[in-house]
Design brief:
Order of helices and strands: HHHHEHEHEHEHEHEEHHEHEHEHHH
Structural class: alpha/beta
Number of helices: 16
Largest sheet: 6 strands, mixed
CATH topology of the largest domain: Rossmann fold
CATH architecture of the largest domain: 3-Layer(aba) Sandwich
Strand order of the largest sheet: 7-6-5-8-9-10
Oligomer: single chain
Number of strands: 10
CATH superfamily of the largest domain: NAD(P)-binding Rossmann-like Domain
Distance between the termini: 43 Å
Helix content: 40-55%
């Protein structure tokens, strides 16, 4: 649909971002202030007082890091083909949160090498957005970068999980379901599915304010994940200990019987009308595979779905991580956070949900252009630093 227009736009622009000076250089004095000799005084000040945030771009910059191993729905297409996506992400950072973000596409898919590179370039940035790195490598990379002194977030995991939680909070209101009394099935146990599942059961943070769904099952390409299933990767073993308490075995078909909610972060056309008819009354369907969802909205509605959301912008109720990451990083930068915690993510989700005062079946999330989104999420993040 957008092929010709998108290709023409990108070819005409030759890149969607540029570096722009904040100051003109039209005199010797200006040159002396921004470069030599004046800049030496700033260097000495930073060396002595370690106050780099006060004098440099670090206070408002994010590095967008990818190895091109899991780009959108295109898979492992490499760093060169990933660059247009990372440029687009940088545009969203700037347009929605006024953050200066830089695309950095690495010609390596070696986990330890990526970790070391990010550590070595972190001086420049106030935060690191990991993007489109395949599972399970993304988990190790993110975990080993948590102590570098600036917030590091893998957006495919946590941006997605924040928006899904916000969408589910409002969908439950619109469908008149109790969030803490619903059965949820997550189809897909990669980066997004793992993070969504952990957030829905408050796996990484729990107090009286953290609401968990009543029952959660996760399916991968081989069927339902359960404790004791053979040949599970480490992150799936952890999921098996958190979910499917009844140890139900089988496929998505068995998992979804009596469920209130289906959350798809998987592949096209794995959900059918018969499965939806086996769910609880007025089911909620989040079919977020891109570009083709797990089931098309018209089929889901025909089968009795009360609310349908997808990852696409041409249907109602788009669930997209662009609703979360600008505000999360805006808050983390303004609050000089060293990490992005589970508590921040949960509160960011509630802040996003509250941006819609009266959610209904066709509007469970605000449009990304709503100026209140970044402001509300950033405020929630800062409050929980």
């Amino acid at each position: 649909m957008y092929k010709k227009e998108a290709l023409n736009l990108h070819k005409r622009l030759r890149g969607k971002i540029e570096v722009k000076s904040k100051i003109s250089v039209n005199s010797k004095k200006e040159l002396s202030l921004i470069y030599t000799p004046g800049v030496a005084e700033v260097c000495k000040e930073i060396y002595i007082k370690k106050n780099i945030y006060d004098y440099t771009i670090k206070s408002n910059s994010v590095g967008i890091i990818t190895d091109g191993s899991a780009v959108l729905g295109l898979g492992n297409i490499g760093p060169e083909a990933a660059l247009p996506v990372m440029e687009g992400k940088a545009v969203l950072f700037k347009e929605f949160a006024n953050i200066d973000a830089f695309p950095i596409c690495l010609k390596t898919q070696d986990t330890n090498e990526i970790i070391q590179i990010v550590k070595n370039i972190s001086t420049v940035f106030g935060g690191i957005n990991l993007e489109d790195i395949s599972a399970p490598r993304c988990f190790e990379i993110e975990n080993k970068l948590q102590d570098i002194g600036i917030p590091v977030m893998h957006d495919d995991q946590h941006g997605t999980s924040i928006v899904v939680l916000a969408a589910l909070i409002n969908a439950c209101k619109a469908a008149k379901k109790d969030f803490e009394d619903i059965k949820v099935v997550v189809n897909g146990a990669g980066a997004a599915g793992n993070a969504v599942s952990r957030l829905l059961v408050c796996a990484d943070y729990y107090d009286k304010t953290c609401r968990s769904v009543k029952e959660l099952m996760v399916c991968d390409s081989k069927g339902i994940i359960y404790k004791g299933r053979k040949n599970l990767e480490e992150h799936k073993i952890k999921l098996s200990n958190l979910t499917n308490k009844k140890r139900i075995k089988g496929t998505l078909k068995e998992a979804i019987v009596g469920a209130d909610v289906f959350i798809g972060v998987s592949v096209a056309n794995v959900l059918n009308e018969s499965m939806i008819r086996s769910m609880n009354k007025d089911p909620i369907i989040f079919a977020m595979a891109n570009p083709i969802p797990e089931i098309m909205p018209n089929k889901a509605k025909r089968a009795g779905a009360k609310i349908v959301a997808t990852g696409r912008s041409d249907f109602p109720n788009q669930v997209n991580n662009s609703l979360a990451f600008p505000g999360v990083f805006r808050g983390a930068l303004d609050g000089k956070a060293k990490k992005i915690t589970a508590k921040m993510k949960i509160n960011a989700a509630y802040a996003l949900a509250k941006t819609i005062e009266k959610p209904d079946v066709n509007r469970i999330l605000p449009l990304v252009f709503d100026k209140n989104i970044v402001k509300n999420i950033a405020k929630a993040v800062i409050k929980n630093i």
